Amino acid sequence: MKLWLKILLGFLVLVALGIIAAMIILDNSENALENELISSRHAIAQEAMREIDMGIVNGELDQVQKDAWVLRNNRALKESNSFFENMSEEEREDYIQEKDKEWQESENLTGFMREIYENDLSNKILNEIQIEKTYIELHKQSPFPEVFVTNKYGVVAGMSGKISDYYQADENWWKQAKKKGFYAGDVRIDASAGIVMAMDLVVKIEDEEGNFQGILKAVLDADKFMGIVENIKKEELKHFSGSREEMEAHLVNNEGEIIHSTADYDSFEKFPYAICGKEEKAPEGEECKKWIKTENKEGKEILLVHAHSEGYREYEGRGWSFILEYEVEEILLPLINLRKDVYLVIFLSVIIGFIVIYFIARRISGPEEKLREKTEQLEDFARLSSGREEKMIELKEKINQLEKEIGREPSFDMEKIEQVKAEEKAKERGLESLDYKELQKMAKKYNIEATQKKDKLIKKIKKIRENG
Question: For residues 101 and 155, what is the distance between their CA atoms, to the nearest angstrom?
C-alpha cells in the first residue's frame, strides 16, 4: 500500500475516534442542559402552585378565620343556639326536619327565611364579610359570592342570600370543620352561588372558652386563582417567538380534571395525559418523575413538567397539580441548534482536514515513491539483463557445437564464456557457491595463479573485486 494512502487511513481512523468521543461528550452535555431546562421549568411550576396554596391561606382562609372570631359573640347566633338548646332532642329533630322541607320546597324567601335573612348575623355577613374593601378595590367584586353561618346544631342562622338547604350538619364540609377547625374544599361548579368556579372555605366558630358555637362557610370565587395560570403563560411566552401553541399552562385537581387551562379545554374535562400525583410511584417503583414526554393529538412531541400542591401552614392542599406544557422542538430549540452547529463543525473539520492531510501525505511520500519506482525499474532491468546474458551464452555454445560438427573452428572463446557464466553465478550466489573449476576460470580472468587452493582463490578474487 502506498505511503500516502497509509497516512490518509490513519487520519480517518483518528477522525472516527474523535467523532465518537465528540458525540459522547455532546450527548452528555445535551442531557445536562436538558435536565437544567426541565429543572428551571419545574421550579416555575412549583412556585405557581405554592402561590396558589399561599393565596388560599393568606388571602382568604385567614380572612374567614378572622370573620369567624368576630362572630363568636354575635347576638343572633347566640339566640339561635339558645332556641334549640331549650328543645328536647326529639322536638329539635322534628322542627329541623319540618323547616328543612319547607326551605327546599320554596323558591322564594318565606317569612321564616326572611327573619333569618334580616337578622343581625345576616347584616354582619352582608355589610362586613361579603364586602371586603381591599379585595373589591382590586377586583371590582366580592371575594365571597355566598356566605352563611350555621349554629352548633347545623341549621342556618345567618346568610347572604337564600341557599339550597336549611339543615347543613349532614354535609362533609360541616363535619370536617367541626372536627379540625377549618375545611378548604376542592374547586367545583356552583351555579347557585352565581359563579362558575367555586371553592368552599369553612371555619369553626368558638367562644372565648373554646366552646363550639357554629360554622361559618364562605364560597370563594376561585377565578381569582386562574389569573395565576394565565400570568405564568404570559411570562413564559416572552422566552419564545409568541405563538400560543408553543406552551400551555394547566391547573388540574387530584382526580385529573382540569380546573383551569390556557388551552382549549372545558372546566373539569379530563386532562388527556397521565401524570402521577404527589403520593404516587412510577411503575418501576421509583419516585414519579417531575416531567414526561409524550405526543399531542397533532402528533407533535410535547414535554409536560408538573408540580404538586404541598399545602401551606395548616392547609394541607387538595392534591392539585400545576402543569406546564411545551412543544419539545421549541423548549429544546437551543439544544437542537447546538447539535446542528456541532455536526456542521465536525463535517467542515473533516473535509478541510482530509484535504490538508492529503496534500501533506502526497508531499511527504513523493520522494520515497520515486525512489521505490526507480529501484523497481533497476531490478526489472537487472533481471532482464541477467536473462539476456544467459541466452547469449547458450547461443554461443550451440554455435560452437554446430561449427565443430561441420568441421569448423569455434567462433567463440568458450573459456571466456565459462568465465562469464562463473561471474554471473558468483553475483547471484556468491563466490563460495562456485566449484573449483569455475573458480580457476575466474582466476584466469583476474590473472591469478589458478593452481592455488579454493579458499585462497576466493580471497584473492574478492580482494581484486573490492579494489575495482
Answer: 13
Neighbour-count burial of 22, counting CB atoms closer than 10 A to its CB (0-12 exposed, 13-18 middle, 19+ buried): middle
Q: Tens digit of pLDDT per residue, the chain (468 long)?
A: 566 566 667 767 777 777 777 677 667 666 666 677 778 888 888 888 888 888 777 767 888 888 888 888 899 999 999 999 999 999 999 999 999 999 999 888 888 999 999 999 998 888 877 555 444 444 445 567 788 999 999 999 999 888 889 999 999 999 999 999 989 888 887 665 555 678 888 999 999 888 999 999 988 877 777 778 888 887 777 665 544 447 788 888 888 888 888 888 887 888 888 776 554 444 444 445 777 888 888 788 888 888 888 888 878 888 888 898 888 776 666 666 666 777 777 777 778 876 777 667 666 666 656 556 655 665 565 555 555 656 666 776 777 777 677 677 777 666 666 666 666 666 656 666 777 777 777 777 777 777 777 777 777 777 777 776
Grid coordinates of 316:
394541607
Tell me the C-alpha distance between 237 and 279, whole Å: 31
Same topology between domain 10-50+228-273+286-337 and domain 74-221: yes
* Residue ranges covered by each domain of the chain: 10-50+228-273+286-337, 74-221, 369-466
CATH class, domain 74-221, is alpha beta
> What CATH architecture does domain 10-50+228-273+286-337 belong to?
2-Layer Sandwich (3.30)
